[in-house]
Amino acid sequence: MTTPSSAPKAPSTPAPQTSGRPPAAAYRNLIVATLGFALTFWAWNLVAPLAGVFGSDLGLSSFAQSFLVAVPVLVGSLGRIPVGALTDRYGARLLFPLISALTIIPVLLIIPARHHFGAMIVVAFLLGLGGTTFAIGIPLVNSWFPPAHRGLALGVFGMGMGGVALSGYFTPRMAKHGENLPFVVVAIALAVYAVLAAVLITDHPDRTIPTTSLGKRLGAAGRLRVTWELSALYAIGFGGIVAFGVYLPTYLKTWYELNPTDAGTKAAGFALVTVVFRPVGGWLSDRIHPATVTAWALALVALFAILQAFDPALNPLGTLCFLLMAAGLGTASGSVFALVSQATPQSQVGSVTGIVGAMGGLGGFVPPLVMGAIYSAKDSYSIGFMLLSDLALAGCVYALERMRTAKAE
């Protein structure tokens, strides 16, 4: 008979209790993790709301501004893969406070670097660290909540991406009272949170520690066709959210001639709608096939991207287009992760989730560069919105035709 201490552990995602209500510790971890996710996402998005200010101070072209705001997105997205693997090995109790504390460094470095473009690119690269906490929180929440409660819990945690909205709203307003005030405030908040996380976050006592190497686990997940299908859909849904989050202030300032505060407020409203509709996507997916939810959500995005390509007046039609695109993107980002659990072998959900999450963030890296390049070349954003509509429509068709029949092998 095998004793508990000698029983082998499979290298898979932690399996919490399968029935009953979650313990109080589960809700404590969910709240603290969601708070940390929101705060680090605020830090991750510090450059975007002030991109116009940095662009004016440094004399940057539209493309250079786009590149500056896109660098943290790229680093944060790719960084989720190793950070997720480190979380599997060392746990969220170590990784959450550690990543939060390390993010303080690039936040404060913005202050001396803000007057030099090269230095800002380096800082933006380091700031990408704040975008990796998604890969810490998902395994933590997944381990504490049983399947009957997991969907809602993950939806609540996903609302932490509202840190982008917080940044869009508060960062330019704080900057009005002192150009370096936002960075000081966020650095202090991160320091306080790192201490709280070290005290309050606990890994599930039955957490499974992988025994195989990172390369083997990622290799196995990478050989699954469904990994890349889900990655493509998430790159459109969540990638669209990230792209608008980092570039919308610049677009509104450039095209509609809004000041940084008004542009940041509009962008915050867009991000808030995506936050609200992410759990809606998960909730609908419990009642309708998640592929169907994804398809209709992306169809909504495609329709209003086409309308926005015709450059309507911002009030009311342009605002309506952006809010409905936000609703579609938020819903799709929630439904795709519901699809992950249905279409992925249970023993590989963790690895697949890491890759899909990374590709979703990476999907937000290219659009700002494309939009900046198109505007520099054509003095118009219409082509960029038509490309978005094409991608969303392609995702809609693929979700309906292929993903409704995808099964875990």
Walk me through what this model shows.
- By secondary structure, this protein is mainly alpha-helical.
- 77% of the residues lie in helices and 0% in strands.
- It contains 17 helices and no strands.
- Helix 12 runs parallel beside helix 14.
- The protein is globular and about 55 Å long.
- The two termini are 31 Å apart.
Briefly summarize what is shown.
This protein has 409 residues and is mainly α. The protein has 17 helices and no strands.
Name some characteristics of this structure:
409 residues; disordered N terminus; 77% helix
Compile the SSE list and pairings.
Blueprint (H helix, E strand, L loop, with lengths): L23 H21 L6 H8 L3 H29 L1 H22 L3 H11 L6 H11 L2 H12 L4 H14 L4 H20 L13 H9 L2 H31 L4 H26 L4 H20 L4 H30 L5 H14 L3 H13 L3 H22 L6
Proportion of residues in helical segments: over 70%
Instruction: Determine the oligomeric state from the structure.
Output: single chain
Low-confidence stretches: 1-18
Count up the helices: 17
Percent range for β-strand residues: under 5%
Please give the alpha-carbon distance between the first and last residues.
31 Å
Largest β-sheet summary: none
Total beta-strand segments: 0
Radius of gyration from CA coordinates: 21 Å
Order of helices and strands: HHHHHHHHHHHHHHHHH
Shape: globular
User: Structural class, from helix and strand content?
Assistant: mainly alpha
**Mean pLDDT score:** 83
